[in-house]
């Protein structure tokens, strides 16, 4: 393939990391790309770090800070001119053959309109990669969402830009779930390819600063699932199967944090969707005993 790939990198105050990320693009064996860096109003030296790369394929935009990753990605897509679009986060790294390898997969499987793959973690909070199937081609939506057969790292995604005529861009009302919502709508609309080969390095850092946001992320994910139900992408049975898992996880989070009232509500929602589960009743009893 020789088509142009538009690579969109959203960033915010990552001046100390973004140079390494850009270099991983410059090092790609596939060279027909444009790199669109969208700065969400950084207050550090991000712009200076980008300008150190004197490469005409790199474009830098600075927009007013919103903190909404979907809005930043949408800005990048509006300015993309390539036949393909790929995402890369400003603290992660592509392996040198990422683009060439994924484009070859799409060339071999013309019925597919997107490809995503696996990654290895590095940094302070890494976890071992899960065991996944080697290669999958076809309808990704249900195997991914219902059967949990794949892992999804946003920086592994590469898709044909023409798909955007079939689906809407990122939903900017989502603060946490915009990436997965976009991917699911993409996967529902067209066939794709999953490859278990490592194509990225994902930087993992300690999450202590974000633990307070975890309940909000779960709440938003449930809203996203309801949207997919309303759009008939999920049946009522499939929705219930997914939703009760998240109510249970939310209940555990609130129980562990001492918020037994909210935990009780989540376990009640879990039991309503899965009334025969003994563990739900046990957790509900715990939340009643530790009433705060």
User: What is the CATH T-level topology of the largest domain?
Assistant: Spore Coat Polysaccharide Biosynthesis Protein SpsA, Chain A
CATH superfamily of the largest domain: Spore Coat Polysaccharide Biosynthesis Protein SpsA, Chain A
* Share of helix, binned: 40-55%
Number of domains: 2
Q: Could you name the CATH class of the largest domain?
A: Alpha Beta
| Average pLDDT, all residues | 91
Q: Sheet with the most strands? A: 9 strands, mixed
Question: Span between N and C termini?
Answer: 61 Å
The assigned structural class equals alpha/beta
Q: How many helices in DSSP terms? A: 10
CA-based shape: globular
Q: What amount of the residues lies in strands?
A: 15-25%
Query: How many beta strands in the DSSP annotation?
Result: 9
- CATH architecture title of the largest domain: Alpha-Beta Complex
Query: Unreliable runs, pLDDT <50, ≥5 residues?
Result: none
Query: Radius of gyration over alpha carbons?
Result: 20 Å
Order of helices and strands: EHEHEHEEHEEHEHEHHHH
């Amino acid at each position: 393939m020789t088509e142009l790939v538009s690579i969109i990198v959203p960033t915010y105050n990552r001046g100390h990391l973004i140079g390494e990320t850009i270099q991983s693009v410059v090092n790609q064996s596939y060279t027909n790309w444009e790199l669109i860096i969208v700065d969400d109003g950084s207050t550090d030296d991000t712009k200076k770090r980008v300008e150190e790369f004197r490469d005409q394929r790199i474009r830098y935009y600075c927009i007013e800070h919103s903190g909404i990753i979907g809005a930043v990605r949408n800005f990048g897509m509006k300015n993309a001119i390539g036949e393909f679009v790929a995402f890369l986060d400003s603290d992660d790294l592509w392996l040198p053959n990422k683009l060439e390898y994924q484009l070859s997969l799409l060339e071999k499987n013309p019925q597919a309109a997107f490809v995503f793959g696996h990654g290895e973690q590095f940094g302070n909070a890494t976890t071992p990669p899960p065991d996944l199937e080697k290669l999958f081609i076809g309808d990704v939506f249900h195997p991914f969402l219902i059967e949990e057969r794949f892992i999804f790292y946003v920086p592994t995604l590469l898709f044909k830009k023409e798909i955007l005529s079939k689906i809407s861009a990122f939903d900017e009302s989502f603060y946490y779930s915009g990436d997965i919502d976009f991917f699911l709508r993409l996967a529902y609309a067209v066939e794709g390819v999953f490859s278990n080969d490592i194509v990225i390095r994902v930087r993992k850092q300690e999450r202590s600063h974000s633990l307070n946001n975890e309940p909000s992320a779960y709440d938003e994910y449930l809203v996203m699932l309801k949207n997919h139900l309303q759009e008939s992408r999920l049946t009522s049975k499939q929705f219930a199967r997914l939703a009760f898992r998240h109510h249970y996880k939310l209940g555990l989070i609130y129980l562990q944090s001492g918020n037994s009232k909210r935990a009780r509500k989540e376990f009640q929602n879990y039991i309503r969707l899965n009334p025969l589960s003994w563990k739900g009743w046990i957790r509900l009893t715990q939340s009643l005993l530790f009433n705060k």
